[in-house]
Write a sequence for this structure.
């Protein structure tokens, strides 16, 4: 592990709008969005709380600075992944659990951290604190002494947990909005948000299973165009929220192929996520076209194309690179491209990213007859 340099953290603090949140978070986790949703819903416990407003129990001994180094380094790189537990105490907050995270956040110069704000009495707060301590202690007892601090696999797992938790928080906030006296338009937007976040969380979990190699592959003869339409249907609420129009074009009818239904829908969705990420916040009609066609050599192809933005130089070389941390579209675009590639390869084909002067295309080729599956 590289030597921790607290000075470098102080020289490069996280931006105020995103302090305490993992850097891969996008609009739905930003402070203004969370505050906008929860301002109408005081029962929703997720809050970004100023560090200076959190008081620690007086009986607690100070955290060991040496022990905090790995945690400070992690927070400086990824933000606070697991929210602190606090209880409201007048105009301030009293810490229930997360003493080390709070101390590390202070060393990393964060001004605000994500917290679960509980409305409980003294007895209930003590129960929560004890329960948190038990859960935190269990992995340390079972873990081998020589276990590495982090691996690519458990980091990917942690990223998935964070983003699914983000989706759940947004669903709770939107559901609370629906219980209030709101306009028909606000109700429609809130419903779309609930559906989009539920769909997104489901897709993220299935994607994680595929990329981590724990998905059980099951192939059967299915119409490819039908599955592509299913992927678009799942994306429909997200499409309305982001003003993206998905169009399906069946060039050679709806050909049958040996396909894994869940994985294929997940892979096509991933390609849409990666392609739509390139669109950013373009103030124009945004259309993504999904074309199903036959391909030479007993294969089929699904092409996911946009002609709104011409990608910058170097995007083609990095499109399927899972280490590209600042890619357009963020973390969802990264795992989207990765799962699209994995699904194509498990169907005996490949994924390619093509660009031209008008836009870009992700092409997934799939064998229509079953080769030996991986």
């Amino acid at each position: 592990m590289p030597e921790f340099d607290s000075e470098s953290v102080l020289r490069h603090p996280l931006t105020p709008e995103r302090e305490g949140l993992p850097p891969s978070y996008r609009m739905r986790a930003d402070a203004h969005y969370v505050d906008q949703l929860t301002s109408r819903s005081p029962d929703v416990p997720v809050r970004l709380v100023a560090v200076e407003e959190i008081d620690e129990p007086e009986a607690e001994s100070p955290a060991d600075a040496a022990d905090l180094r790995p945690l400070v380094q992690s927070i400086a790189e990824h933000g606070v992944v697991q929210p602190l537990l606090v209880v409201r105490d007048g105009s301030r907050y009293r810490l229930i659990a997360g003493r080390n995270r709070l101390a590390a956040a202070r060393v990393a110069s964060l001004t605000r951290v994500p917290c679960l704000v509980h409305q409980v009495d003294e007895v209930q707060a003590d129960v929560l604190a004890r329960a948190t301590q038990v859960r935190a202690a269990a992995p340390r007892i079972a873990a081998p002494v020589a276990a590495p601090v982090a691996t690519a696999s458990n980091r990917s797992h942690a990223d998935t947990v964070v983003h699914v938790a983000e989706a759940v928080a947004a669903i709770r906030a939107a559901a609370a909005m629906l219980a209030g006296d709101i306009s028909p338009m606000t109700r429609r937007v809130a419903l779309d948000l609930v559906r989009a976040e539920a769909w997104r969380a489901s897709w993220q979990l299935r994607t994680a299973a595929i990329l981590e190699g724990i998905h059980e592959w099951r192939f059967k003869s299915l119409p490819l165009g039908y599955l592509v339409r299913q992927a678009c249907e799942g994306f429909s609420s997200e499409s309305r929220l982001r003003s993206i129009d998905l169009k399906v074009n069946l060039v050679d009818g709806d050909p049958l192929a040996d396909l894994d239904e869940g994985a294929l829908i997940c892979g096509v969705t991933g390609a849409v996520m990666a392609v739509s990420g390139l669109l950013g916040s373009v103030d124009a009609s945004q259309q993504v076209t999904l074309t199903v066609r036959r391909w030479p050599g007993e294969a089929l192809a699904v092409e996911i194309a946009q002609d709104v933005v011409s990608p910058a130089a170097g995007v083609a070389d990095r499109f399927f690179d899972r280490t590209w941390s600042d890619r357009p579209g963020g973390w969802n675009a990264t795992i989207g491209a990765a799962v699209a590639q994995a699904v194509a390869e498990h169907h005996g084909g490949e994924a390619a990213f093509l660009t031209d002067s008008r836009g870009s295309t992700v092409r997934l080729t799939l064998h229509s007859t079953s080769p030996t599956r991986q």
Observations:
- The chain has twelve helices and twelve strands.
- The first strand starts at residue 46 and ends at 50.
- The chain has two domains: 6-150, 220-367.
- The CA atoms of residues 29 and 166 lie 7 Å apart.
